[in-house]
Each structure stands twice: as structure tokens, then as C-alpha cells.
């Protein structure tokens, strides 16, 4: 069972602008990790503020860092009732986004300002 996904961002404004506004996540709590604990777990001396956010059964730990991570293929896939609405909101707010056209339904890719990539799909209804 997946408990949470951890992502790193540089600008805490993204909590409101992207994670709450676009992805519709709710802040459940916020806490700090000390530089000592960060060193023990992540091998970095940077202390970090962490936001625990969720939408239904998906929970994220968003780490605020002063260092941008390099990403190549890493991404998170989320399903929404109206995936196109999520895409359109992201585009309206100036986020990088693209559509992958598929027969029957489209897949949307959206990047936050820290280059975290999200694949957004419509929830598939099973009859």
C-alpha cells in the first residue's frame, strides 16, 4: 500500500498556486525536519519545511528546499473526474502543460515551477 509521495519544491508559493489551486490538494499539516535528522535520513544538512497534502486517498509530502532536483522520467500520475479542467486551470495560471491525444480520452502533462511532472487522466468508470 502506498502511503505518500515526497516531492521537492523551491518556492513555498507553489503550495497555494499549484498544489492547492491546480491539483486541488488540501494541507493536512506542516512540520520542520532538522538539519541533523535530514542528514541522518537524506544525507543532506539542509533543514526543511514539509507540507503534508492530500486529495482523497493520495497523500504528498512537499519539501521546501533551496536546491532544485534534477528529474528525467520521474512523474506522478493522478486521476480526476474532469482531467481537462485541471489542465485548463494549469494553463490559465501559466504552468507548462501539454496534451497527449489518445483514442477515446486524452492524457494531460503538467509541470510545476520546480519541474515536478504530473500526468493527469480522467477517472475510468468500470461498468
From TrEMBL:
Gene3D superfamilies for this protein: 2,3-Dihydroxybiphenyl 1,2-Dioxygenase, domain 1 (3.10.180.10)
> Please, which domain of life does this record's source organism belong to?
Bacteria
The record's listing under Pfam families reads: Glyoxalase (PF00903)
Which InterPro entries does this UniProt record tie to the protein? Glyas_Bleomycin-R_OHBP_Dase, Glyas_Fos-R_dOase_dom, VOC_core
Q: Domain VOC: where?
A: 1-123
Mind telling me what this protein is named?
Answer: VOC family protein
Amino acid at each position: 500500500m502506498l502511503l505518500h509521495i515526497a516531492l521537492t519544491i523551491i518556492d513555498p508559493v507553489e503550495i497555494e498556486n499549484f498544489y492547492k489551486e491546480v491539483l486541488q490538494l488540501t494541507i493536512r499539516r506542516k512540520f520542520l525536519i532538522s538539519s541533523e535528522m535530514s542528514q541522518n535520513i537524506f544525507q543532506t544538512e539542509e533543514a526543511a519545511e514539509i507540507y503534508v497534502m492530500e486529495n482523497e486517498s493520495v497523500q504528498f509530502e512537499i519539501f521546501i528546499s533551496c536546491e532544485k532536483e534534477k528529474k528525467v522520467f520521474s512523474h506522478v500520475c493522478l486521476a480526476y473526474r474532469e482531467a481537462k479542467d485541471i489542465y485548463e486551470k494549469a494553463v490559465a495560471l501559466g504552468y507548462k502543460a501539454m496534451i497527449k491525444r489518445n483514442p477515446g480520452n486524452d492524457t494531460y502533462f503538467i509541470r510545476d515551477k520546480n519541474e515536478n511532472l504530473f500526468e493527469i487522466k480522467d477517472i475510468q468508470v468500470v461498468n
